[in-house]
Amino acid sequence: MRARLRETAEGLAGLLWREYIVYRDRSGEVVIRGEHVQRWISLAPAAGSDEVLVRAGRILEGGTTAPARSEAVVPLSAGMGELAAACRRLLADTAAAPAPRDPRAAGNGRAAKAAKARPARKSRHTGLGSWAVIVSVLGVVAVCVYQLVLNGG
């Protein structure tokens, strides 16, 4: 069944997209990635011996895959045309669904609120506190030099 699934995926990928990558993932499913359309399709054996579970989802920024948005069970005996039609329906459902959030880009909710509450710096000029430290250090250095000159050092 695995070899048949791989052959089916290769033929299906050629019908659906002009650019694609076909590979087997850790769970044994055959995955077809269409990077140019930011979508993926997976084929896995279903409960019936002649059936295949087809799932479709999106590819997020950075190349990670979002969970499947839709799935269907299709009999392999129906032919490549029927399988391609089912995949197109699933891809259309995936495209119609709202885009998934990329969890890495979202950030922490509290950190985002704190950043909004904090006033934004308009420039990188030296602040009043920094000037006070600089003047204090220069004053200490001046007192030391004055003491050295007074004592004949």
The biggest sheet amounts to: 5 strands, antiparallel
The count of helical stretches stands at 5
Question: Uncertain segments of ≥5 residues (pLDDT<50)?
Answer: none
| Major beta sheet, strand line-up | 1-2-3-4-5
State the helicity in percent bands.
40-55%
**What structural class is derived from the secondary structure elements?**
alpha+beta
- Separation of termini? 95 Å
Number of strands: 5
The Rg value, from CA coordinates, equals: 31 Å
Provide the β-strand percentage band.
Answer: 15-25%
Shape: rod-shaped
- Which whole number gives the mean pLDDT? 82
Order of helices and strands: HEEEEEHHHH
Tell me what you see in this structure.
- This protein has 153 residues and is of the alpha+beta class.
- The protein contains five helices and five strands; from the N terminus they run αβββββαααα.
- The protein has a five-stranded antiparallel sheet with strand order 1-2-3-4-5, covered by helices on one side.
- Strand 1 and strand 2 (30-34) form a beta hairpin.
Question: How is the secondary structure organized here?
Answer:
Layout: H1 2-16, E1 21-24, E2 30-34, E3 39-45, E4 51-58, E5 70-75, H2 80-96, H3 103-106, H4 109-117, H5 128-151
Antiparallel strand pairs: 1-2, 2-3, 3-4, 4-5
Features:
single chain; alpha+beta; five-stranded antiparallel β-sheet; 5 helices; 5 strands; 45% helix
A few lines on this structure:
Helix content is about 45%, strand content about 20%. The protein has five helices and five strands, in the order H-E-E-E-E-E-H-H-H-H.
